[in-house]
Specification:
This protein is α+β, with helices and mostly antiparallel strands. Helices cover about 20% and strands about 25% of the residues. The protein is flat, with a radius of gyration of 35 Å.
Amino acid sequence: MRWLALIVLGSLLAACANNDMSDLQRYVEEVKARPPSGISPPPEPIEVETYLYVAGDRRDPFTPDKADTQEVETVVDSGIRPDLNRRKEELEFFPLDSLRMVGTLEQDGQTWALVKTKEGIIHRVTKGNHMGRNYGRIIEITEDKIKLVELVKIGSGYQEQEAEISLGEGE
């Protein structure tokens, strides 16, 4: 029975094959015989009327305003610096707003938070781990949030800033 079905199928497929490509060859020859179409010239450039700015008694827009130069803030270096010799943890390569807390677990008396990246990979973090691009260090993990202290660049120094990721945030 199988052989019969294969023979019938083979003959049907063979009947569909048509090796006559004369119409295709004729069309290709017709296209090749057409005269080439020329490229239209680019449009003529439009002349723009020039304008000469004369300041007169008006303020020069290219020099800073005196009021702007007097409002320069004095930034005090707090002495806080990130440890640049520390090896970065994997979650420090992600912006904090792209990470989601998806749960917590407790193991051997230690609380762990489960953090999911945009790629869907879940990481386990605990107090003291780092995450986010601003040198964020985890200071507390509760059932519904992770609290961090980030080091944000201010002028020539850094300033500590608290941040947190809540459970299910960003869903």
